[in-house]
Amino acid sequence: MEEVPTTVLCGERCHLGEGPTYDAATDTAWWFDIVGRRLFEAQLDTGQVTIHALGVMGSALGRIDAHRQLLVADDGLYIRDTADGRMALYRPLEADIAATRSNDARVHPSGTFWIGTMGRQAERGLGAIYALHRGELSRLYDQITIPNAICFSPDGTIGYFADTGKNVLFRVELDAATGLPRGEPAALVTRRNGGGIDGAVVDADGLIWNARWGGGCIDVYSPEGVHLRTIRVPARQSSCPAFIGQDFSRLLVTSAWQGMAEDAKRADPDHGRTFVLDVAVRGRREPDVKLATG
Question: Which residues bind substrate (predicted)?
Answer without folding.
Answer: 101, 103
